[in-house]
Design a protein that fits this description.
homotetramer; 206 residues; Rossmann fold; 5-stranded parallel sheet
């Protein structure tokens, strides 16, 4: 193994693959799926409902980045697994992120949310996945995630038994990151800057 | 509701109850259970095995405080749910903390650990609990936690659907904190200061 | 180094030392300091102000356990460093926990809180520490934490450069845990169970 | 404010802007800067040195996603702020991520790392920033982050006093995410799949 300078072939190939994937993302997203998700989020905002975000591993990190922005916009938003995450109830919204749609911790969260009357938005690559079937609304974000009959995936996940290498998950995660940041832009636009600031001040300083 | 100065009756009552509980703790712990746990941890240390810690809610925080000390002592230790938690395997050790012994996320972690050949140390108030039954070794730490036929406890936990108030869990959590810090003292003693420092430098600076 | 069964001498000595320390804690706490802290928290509750908690290392874990209980009681509470922690402002309350009172991340947080008009409650062993000097109110919780001319403590802390072993910090951390759980009991008593539930439902389900 | 269906104008504009930015990223990255960073990481891998990652807010989340992959590749990697992050020392590597290069928590971490003899890789948009000046090596990732004479940015950050809305930071964060995932691909290639697996097993199961 040489550690010396090389031509970065794999580096540029990966970047090309990622960019090419993201470029296609726009066409592959369903306008009506996106629109309905935005409507559900705005409704939660309007009624002061909670938007709770859940995801495992890197999908969880993408979810947290989204939650940060929602908080900036004045949403009552929380992340599953953090210290002060409150109970949710009827008409609160769970944004559940899982490429395979079968990550057990995410599916379990979605089931629990349904039981208490909350609404579930699934962000996944597979419309037939367990997560998608439970959800009130599905936004399909492509990726080359395997459908994964991963019976005990959750067990492995919570023990940190990751796949040795899962570069294919990368496309779903980056695609979802770009998708959710675009959602934030639309939310900003629809809420209106002045309203946002008002809400922001209201939420923060009172 | 008066916000003015009062006699702090509930404050002192709670403190008395906690201290009285902790005082009894020493007699209620089984010498042989504690001794075996220490032996298992030292064995993991000696063989460079991982000690993985898991707990939900406040029990999870107590577990993290323990993991910090293990790390200082040169253990290869990780906490379920953090970013860089690696896979575990045969003869690694899972320290699973749950007062009721039925917290689903902890039970699931224990099951998964058993599957890959890791050893499970359960710290719980209930010797008959699901967690205790799975474990290779149980240390009973009393507390007034209910046995809790909490069918969907996990679902509620991961959604942040906490009990409105669970002051009874407090005794288990504080008792476990005191218990685990005493374990740390014994580990320090047995490993010996100089060995610890050696190991510490080795692990950290190389 | 023998890994075999031993008499657990260090284990029981440490437990005795901890329990003896905690027993004295009650006498060493100032009634008026505790009372004023409770008053400030209730005032924040009453006005819907944020209670933000900060601490480094194990003190941070103790702070999170406190925040969880405050959340159960219907407080608007957050922990520094988590994803959705919002901005604070005038008359919000920062609970800053540091045995030495000189942990840089905690002192910096306290300074920033003062700038925006928030009130700072310091929980520390040292009335003359930088943290105590900044604070609006100090509750002294004893411990054998050193005064620590820890110029660059923060730098070391954020890089994970912990003390190799700091069992002395343990007493402050456990004492603060018992102290804060007793505060929770008093808050429950003063707010009244029914009010709590009302507030709880209100905050969570609406 | 209408919550009804709309044409998602802002959504698609934002997505276009992000994709256009990412497309240019490839040309804007310096081949030699990237190559040197990869060399430093491989050297850390080869010598069993720690790769510690630090970033604030969303940059911190991007850093964690990178750390997860490094862990999969068999690196000894940790994230500043998590429970079991160990001390670092001479020739360990700190990957410090900050668009502005002046985020106080990141700069402080970099200073501390330099003191103990660790090497600092700065990922920032500004070659003249405080972070870049401290670093042993700088990789410039563009973004429209302001240079930000943010004297007390850190104070604000640790208190959760975020900018009300910082969509400009988004480009740096997404660009860095794509950049770091491409780094991972190159590391995989250079280490070789079989070596990776060997190392992985070694690190995890032993």
């Amino acid at each position: 193994m040489s550690l010396g300078s090389q031509n970065l072939k794999a580096f540029y190939s990966a970047m090309d693959e990622i960019l090419s994937f993201l470029k296609d993302l726009k066409e592959k997203l369903s306008n009506s799926e996106v629109d309905k998700m935005i409507g559900m989020l705005l409704e939660a905002w309007g009624w002061g409902k909670i938007v709770l975000v859940v995801g495992a591993g890197r999908s969880g990190l993408v979810g947290r980045a989204f939650a940060m922005r929602l908080m900036h916009l004045g949403f009552r938003t929380y992340v599953v697994g953090e210290t002060i995450t409150p109970a949710i109830g009827p008409n609160d919204v769970l944004v559940a992120i899982s490429g395979s749609g079968s990550t057990a911790i995410v599916v379990t969260a979605a089931e629990a949310a349904k039981k208490v009357g909350a609404k579930v938005i699934a962000i996944t690559s597979f419309r037939d996945s367990p997560l998608a079937k439970i959800a009130d609304h599905v936004v399909v974000v492509p990726g080359r995630t395997k459908t994964a009959v991963e019976q005990d995936y959750f067990s492995r996940q919570i023990l940190g038994i990751h796949e040795p290498l899962a570069p294919l998950g990368t496309l779903f995660e980056l695609g979802t990151a770009v998708f959710l940041d675009s959602i934030v832009a639309e939310l900003m636009y629809r809420l209106g800057k002045s309203e946002i600031e008002m809400k922001y001040r209201h939420a923060v300083i009172e």
